[in-house]
Amino acid sequence: ALPKQLGVAEEPRAEDLVHALQRFDKQLAGRRMSPNELAACLRLLAYLRSRPSAGDAAFLAAARCSNMLLVPTAAGMMMPAARVVHVGGGGGGVAAARLLGRADPQHLVLAHPQISEHICSWLGVASLSDMLSEELDPSQSLHPLPAINGTALEHVQALLASPHFAAAAFSTAAAHAAAVPALRQLGLGTVAKVCADAAAPGRLLFVERLYSRVVLRSSGRDVTRDSASRQVRAPQAASGDSLHAPGQQGFETFCARRSVR
Q1: What angle do CA 75, 79, 81 make, to 5 degrees?
Q2: Element housing 94 (H / E)
Q3: Given pLDDT bands bounded at 50, 70 and 90, which one contains residue 235?
Q4: Which are the contacts of 118, defined by CB distance < 8 A and separation ≥ 6?
Q5: Distance of CA 149 to the CA centre of its chain
Q6: 42-46, 189-193, 207-211 — which is least confidently predicted?
Q7: What is the 3-state secondary structure (H, E, C) of 55-67?
Q8: Contacts 24+ apart (CB under 8 A), 29-35
Q9: Beta carbons of 54 and 128 less than 8 angstroms apart
Q10: Does pTM surpass 0.70?
Q11: Among the four 54, 136, 196, 242, which has the fewest Cβ within 10 Å?
Q12: Among residues of the chain, what percentage have pLDDT more than 70?
């Protein structure tokens, strides 16, 4: 009873822990954290996430808004949560890897990969897909082609619009639904509509080369790493043609090899 009368608390307040992180950042003085220091920071963030009291919750909400909450970066430094991004659950998948590989690293500071996704979300750390998007490079012409390797564009459009193609695409998706939960939501009607939309006039193009760029969603600023990163290349091919189907959120790319002399 005496310690409580003297103002001694059984547990530190969230405010005390946030200030402790700030003091720790000053002590680092720009150096990288040691493995033990990193582990301690991660445990502290997880503990802050679990604070149940209304007072702590109100303080933490205000701290997030004012950039008081610091988090470890992938480089082992401390930085405000609002200035870093996380890749996303499971490494973010192919799309995140593509964005990471093509974006200029000077415009990205990644949160440490050991920070869990739910803690990143609670901290207000943006995901890579929330921060960046990929779009066609408006400075490059598409140069449409009527056919690739003797296959005419009209033939591919007719194939996409075919009920048999939609059924085959649906069967392929259903076969992988156990491993990819998002595929479980697809019905035959949805697949058929997507295929039919792609086959509509003006939605599908054969192009000699395809160029895209990585931009910041907030401002539209181009943050592509370099000119070589702008060309979309066919997998396992040094050069190739692309089938380009514009989409609502960007574009989908399907590549077909074509010898270039």
Answers
A1: 115
A2: helix 93-102
A3: very low
A4: 49
A5: 35
A6: 207-211
A7: HHHHHHHHHHHCC
A8: 30/77, 32/75, 32/76, 32/77, 33/72, 33/76, 33/77, 33/78
A9: no
A10: no
A11: 54
A12: 83
Q: Which residues contact 97 (CB under 8 A, 6 or more apart)?
A: 91
The more confidently predicted of residues 258 and 129 is 129
**The two three-digit tokens of residue 200, written as one number:** 């509509």
Q: Hey, what amino acid is at 51?
A: R
Q: Residue 128's pLDDT is what?
A: 87
- The DSSP code sequence of 214-258 is EEETTT--B-BS-GGGGEE--TT-SS-EEEEEE-SSSEEEEEE--
Residue 184's contacts (CB-CB under 8 Å, 6 or more residues apart) are 177
Return the H-helix or E-strand segment holding 17: helix 14-28
Nearby residues of 69 by Cβ (< 8 Å), 6 or more positions away: 18, 21, 60, 63, 80, 81, 123, 124
Rounded Cα distance, 2 and 6, in Å: 6
Per-residue confidence at 223, pLDDT binned at 50, 70, 90? very high
Report the SS3 class of residue 52: coil
Q: Are 111 and 69 in contact (CB under 8 A)?
A: no
**What integer pLDDT is reported at residue 41 of this predicted model?**
92
3-state helix, strand, coil in the chain (%, to 5): 45, 20, 35
Confidence grade of residue 218 (pLDDT, cut at 50, 70, 90): confident
Q: 15: which 2 tokens?
A: 């405010």
User: What percent of the chain is predicted at pLDDT more than 90?
Assistant: 33
Sign of the Cα torsion 145, 148, 150, 152 reads negative
d(CA 18, CA 207): 54
**Rounded CA gap, 112 and 184, in Å?**
32
